[in-house]
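Input for the complex:
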Amino acid sequence: MNNKEQTATHHPTMHPIHLSGPANGDFLCIVGDCIESIFKRTEVLKDSENLIYNIQLAVHETCTNIVDHAYSAKDTGDINLIFSVIPSPLQLVVDVEDKGNAFDPTLVEEPNPEQLQVRGYGLYLIQKLMDKTDYSSAGGVNKWRLTKFLTVL
Amino acid sequence: MNNKEQTATHHPTMHPIHLSGPANGDFLCIVGDCIESIFKRTEVLKDSENLIYNIQLAVHETCTNIVDHAYSAKDTGDINLIFSVIPSPLQLVVDVEDKGNAFDPTLVEEPNPEQLQVRGYGLYLIQKLMDKTDYSSAGGVNKWRLTKFLTVL
Amino acid sequence: MYFQVQDIVSKVSVVKLNEKIDAVSAPQIKEKFNEMISDGVYQFVLDLSQVPFMDSAGLAALVSLLKQARQENGDVKLVAPQNESAMRILKLTKFDRVFDMANTAESAVALF
Amino acid sequence: MYFQVQDIVSKVSVVKLNEKIDAVSAPQIKEKFNEMISDGVYQFVLDLSQVPFMDSAGLAALVSLLKQARQENGDVKLVAPQNESAMRILKLTKFDRVFDMANTAESAVALF
Ligand SMILES: Nc1ncnc2c1ncn2[C@@H]1O[C@H](COP(=O)(O)OP(=O)(O)O)[C@@H](O)[C@H]1O
Ligand SMILES: Nc1ncnc2c1ncn2[C@@H]1O[C@H](COP(=O)(O)OP(=O)(O)O)[C@@H](O)[C@H]1O
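Predicted:
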């Protein structure tokens, strides 16, 4: 692969960074640390503490759901993450993939805290925190694509 | 993939973690942060500050060399890192891959600081800090395998 | 995690949490809550002012405590997190409508 | 990075570095050294006591300064890093044989 174009045009894009590892608690913490490190060094995100926090939380919830629901303790596997910034319109894209059980997020109901519902805030938060959340499942691979549109000041 | 065996036997191994991204200074910093996060949460490395420091430095030097020598500003590409802990004997293995220019590390001479040699301490440090350093090049992919044998207390 | 527990005469217990409330810390926090409930504490002020991060597992721990407390005719009031992003999570999930909130522990205690 | 530069009467300049000396910071450090050399400083004490990390680019910056200083009949003495691992790097590369080293800035100055 070749970064020529990027360095030439000084587009505020980010060549994709991949991170993958086992779906467990330790790896979730590692993902959290790495996201912070990646975003701190991503030109268009610098100094956007709230934005970084929100994306970090959305990715964290997505990964937690994979550990809790897509895989089980008996039948676990890897989580693959791909972080990129692409232009026109400028957007941060995080792909999160697993090879566990698929599901249909459109069938999950919005949580109701007024009825003191204890669980079920994860998916809702992900959708509220990102601009676009697409889920697809094909060939045994489930994939979330989380998108946040960015404005350059 | 399946972690069954691992969790069953409680072997102090680590399911591989992959990290890859563009060969540039920002990514080198991200690699440094991620290594620290990974090693802090690797059971057999916990509390071995010196060990972590040494491996971190060896990986850092390996990646710096890829940015400086395997690739060039004009023709750059990705660095792939794979971290794993494997048993019998217990060892930490870091694979570092690039698709740039190959070279023959055996032809590189030991640096001589007494002659006030300015550059050339990277490879030497890598070899001193790790227990085994293997370099191979095949099919356009150059690969360093850095190994550190671990003792369980 | 270190929990600073302070009993106010009217039997409201103020629990100050000062780390992330997430999937990692939630089990420990829940255990502490259960212990206090067993000891007959049903009126809580959770001081979240210094909490830097909260996830859905953290939210679950809060609602779960509220549910237990209300079953015993108690309640849970919150001191709002100073971290803007953590506060935003409470608003996004409408937790600010379910929990009475205040900006200091004193005013949260006064809500009882 | 903040450089604390202190001139001792005998014209030894003590430069205290308190961050990583690596590929990222080396260019900035070299620039500072070049500036001082241009100003006629050839006797240096580099206080590395608080340096937490050093890589080969950092080592290169140190030798490069030593080379320039010696060309002008000056020298560079080091205050040893307190961080064990950073100190080990200096030993591994035999830098402790090329540079005179001491444990405090005062005793490093006394080496001139
Ligand atoms: N990655 C996933 N794979 C399979 N099922 C999922 C996944 N994520 C969420 N779900 C389903 O959606 C439900 C709601 O998820 P969420 O809102 O995160 O709440 P919680 O995890 O607390 O149950 C889960 O209970 C689960 O049934
Ligand atoms: N990954 C690499 N690909 C190609 N050449 C390399 C690589 N790593 C090292 N080299 C060669 O080996 C030499 C010594 O490397 P090193 O000891 O790290 O010192 P330095 O990078 O300061 O020159 C380099 O100058 C370069 O010619």
